[in-house]
Specification:
This protein is an alpha+beta fold. 47% of the residues lie in helices and 19% in strands.
Length: 272
């Protein structure tokens, strides 16, 4: 009986003693932290810079929206490119008109002109002259004292009408498209490598607008392509020019005839 009582006392002491021991351990941890101990707090999984990220709930809707935005951006780029092409073509037409237009020579009123004192003036054209011969001809004109009476007029090639597919973003893409057009029967398909239609694919070039329009309609029906266009290409400067001599006196005309004879050039009147 005595032994049983001792065992009960030991069990009670263990139960109450363990609670006191746990409280002592907790107080020891708090004291350690308050004295400068390091807390082993788990680091946050996401940094604060990522707190504004919104998850994508509908992936298909997100992809469709991004695709629509990309197509809108591409369409705006195509509109800007088309506007630039039209502006450049208009500017070329204006430059050609300015170069080809020769101001008319005013005809003086015969009633107010004294034929006895007014010297007669002449206008002549020399050409076409190759640009390679211009330096030697220019020296002859300078020796004849006619530099101030001459102006150079560029000779342009004939205008043409081109049926083409609107330019791509790269030349490599344009070359691939040209190969596809050849496989579809357009053997003259080629990439335009300069000018306002850079990286466009040319399907045909014509000197007549009606022929170009007929070819355009056939190609449009055959390819079922909305990017097909037909446009007029302004003639480009050639390797030849005309030399215009205006307001020449009799003595200057004789000097000009000698210049033409020395350089084997034909002298024509500006009227023809």
């Amino acid at each position: 009986m005595r032994n049983f009582a001792i065992i009960l006392c030991l069990i009670c002491a263990g139960i109450y003693g363990w609670d006191a021991f746990e409280k002592w351990l907790d107080m020891s941890d708090e004291a350690s932290l308050s004295s400068g101990g390091v807390s082993h707090k788990q680091p946050e999984v996401f940094p604060s810079a990522m707190k504004n990220i919104v998850p994508i709930h509908d992936v298909n809707q997100y992809i469709a929206r991004e695709k629509a935005l990309s197509e809108q951006k591409f369409q705006r780029q195509e509109q800007l490119r088309q506007a630039l092409l039209e502006q450049q073509q208009k500017q070329q037409e204006q430059e050609k008109a300015a170069r080809s237009s020769v101001p008319p020579i005013p005809i003086p009123n015969q009633e107010n002109v004294d034929l006895r004192t007014e010297p007669q003036s002449f206008c002549f054209k020399v050409g076409p002259v190759s640009t390679a011969k211009l330096p030697s001809i220019n020296r002859s004109i300078e020796r004849a004292g006619l530099l101030e009476a001459v102006r150079v007029e560029s000779i342009l090639s004939a205008d043409s009408f081109v049926v083409f597919i609107i330019p791509t973003s790269t030349q490599k893409g344009a070359q691939a498209l040209a190969q596809q057009m050849k496989k579809k029967g357009f053997q003259n398909a080629s990439v335009i490598t300069k000018g306002p239609l850079l990286n466009a694919v040319q399907l045909g070039e014509f000197s007549n607008e009606e022929q170009a329009q007929f070819f355009f309609e056939q190609a449009k029906a055959r390819l079922n392509m909305s990017d097909l266009r037909v446009t007029r290409m302004i003639g480009q400067p050639t390797e030849q020019v005309n030399l215009i001599f205006s307001s020449l006196t009799d003595s200057q005309v004789q000097a000009l005839r000698r210049v033409c004879s020395e350089n084997r050039q034909t002298l024509q009147s500006c009227e023809f």
